[in-house]
Amino acid sequence: YAWDANEEYLFKAMVAFAMRRYSSKSTTQISNVLLCNVTDRVSFWFVVTDSSKNVTTVPGSEVEAAIRMNRNRINNAFLLSDKTLQFLKITSTLSPPVEPSTPVWLIVFGVVLCLIVAGIVFLIFSGIQKHRKKNKESAERENLEEKVEVTLENGIPCEALDLKAGHINGVFAADDDQFTSL
Q: Which residues, 6+ apart, have CB-to-CB distance to 110 below 8 Å?
């Protein structure tokens, strides 16, 4: 960044502009801004004189307030920022930190709530599946018991018992005629 007479003129013009905007007087001219002790590293101090009395200087508090009010315009004129263009004794006008439109606690709350709802839905569906599986297994057992007609015992096929209607073994069935009634 080359600092030359043109850059000095632009700086003086921006300070004069800031003073005019701050005090609402159109009496501050570029010639009222004086640069002193300019170094190669673009370091200097400046004073603003009163245009009505060319000898007295404007109070530092007024100059600080004018620069603070128009700091953005001065930075933009030199294509710099508050980090690269420093005014000593004048606090920088950094933009406030960006706050999200949604508070952080609300985002965390939403995530936790979604996890809880997902867990409840999972438990409900897994319970329904277990219930259906249990009903299906009991129905299959009943079907197997009904389908078995011939069973094998010791390799000999036997008749299946009709468990629902019962089965009468004829060997032990007694004839009513053989026995006398009591």
A: none
The tens digit of pLDDT for each residue in 125-153 reads: 999 999 999 888 888 777 766 655 556 66
Q: Could you tell me which residues come within 8 angstroms of residue 78 by beta carbon, excluding any fewer than 6 positions away?
A: 7, 10, 11, 85
Q: How many residues does the chain have?
A: 182
User: Could you report the per-residue pLDDT of 42-89, keeping only the tens digit for each?
Assistant: 777 888 888 776 667 788 888 888 888 888 888 888 777 766 676 666
Query: What is the pTM (predicted TM-score) of this model?
Result: 0.47
Q: In this structure, how many other beta carbons lie within 10 angstroms of the beta carbon of residue 77?
A: 15
The residues that bridge with 152 in the sheet, in sequence order, are 157
Check residue 46 and report its DSSP letter: E
* Terminal Cα distance for the chain, rounded: 134
**140-149 as b/e: b if 16+ CB within 10 A:** eeeeeeeeee
Q: How far is it, in rounded angstroms, from Cα 160 to Cα 27?
A: 121
Give DSSP secondary structure letters for 67-109.
Answer: HHHTHHHHHHHTT--TTTS--TTS---PPPPP--SS-HHHHHH
40, 67 Cβ separation under 8 angstroms: no
